[in-house]
Amino acid sequence: MTDELEEKEVIRSVRELYQRHEWAKKLFESLSQRKNNPATTNIDRLMRLLDVPLSEATAIAKELQDAGCGTYIVGRKGNPSRFAWDYSAITLGLVATGKSDEIIGMTDEASGDEREDIINRPTLASTIQEAKEALARSLGITPDQIEIIIKT
């Protein structure tokens, strides 16, 4: 029962963030469209995605933590600062944008096709394509101009 109450509070919180902040709209819309579900998001990635400075990205991660979405982890010994999601980031995005009323915990056991579809969508092909698209955007070229070679 407590978990259900916690989930309802998280749902309320992410919807409130989405209504109040432009950064939340951008973040949750991006998450709702992802194919793969991140366990963590580096603060550097938040900075790039939201086009904000480090101090603001850190404040956003702390606000997400306060909303019950996960935990802000300060980088130590060469590891980057990051946000560890307690719930599927995809389902948080779907709930915030009003496309769903349910979130899935990152530690939940697989519970059927819906969870598998949401959580286990990534394939090597989509990951490579996403990498090509991101690299192309950063270089100002098209993805078809990039060739990725994997040596085994």
Question: What is this entry, summarized?
Answer:
The protein has helices at residues 2-20, 22-32, 43-50, 54-66, 89-96, 113-119, 124-139, and strands at 40-42, 70-73, 82-85.
Structure write-up:
This protein is globular. The longest helix is centred in the first third of the chain and has 19 residues, at 2-20. It is mainly alpha-helical and 152 residues long. Residues 109-125 have low confidence and may be disordered. The chain has a three-stranded antiparallel sheet with strand order 1-3-2. It has seven helices and three strands, in the order ααβααββααα. A hairpin with an 8-residue loop joins strand 2 (70-73) and strand 3.
Topology of helices and strands:
Elements: H1 2-20, H2 22-32, E1 40-42, H3 43-50, H4 54-66, E2 70-73, E3 82-85, H5 89-96, H6 113-119, H7 124-139
Antiparallel strand pairs: 1-3, 2-3
User: Which structural category do the helix and sheet elements fall into?
Assistant: mainly alpha
Q: Terminal Cα separation, in Å?
A: 48 Å
**Counting H and I runs of at least 4 residues, what is the number of helices?**
7
- Biggest sheet: strands, sense, closure? 3 strands, antiparallel
Strand order of the largest sheet: 1-3-2
Helix content: 40-55%
Rg computed from alpha carbons, rounded to a whole number of angstroms = 16 Å
Quick check: average pLDDT? Answer: 82
Low-confidence stretches: 109-125
Basic shape: globular
| Beta-strand residue fraction | 5-15%
Please provide the count of β strands: 3
Helix-strand pattern: HHEHHEEHHH
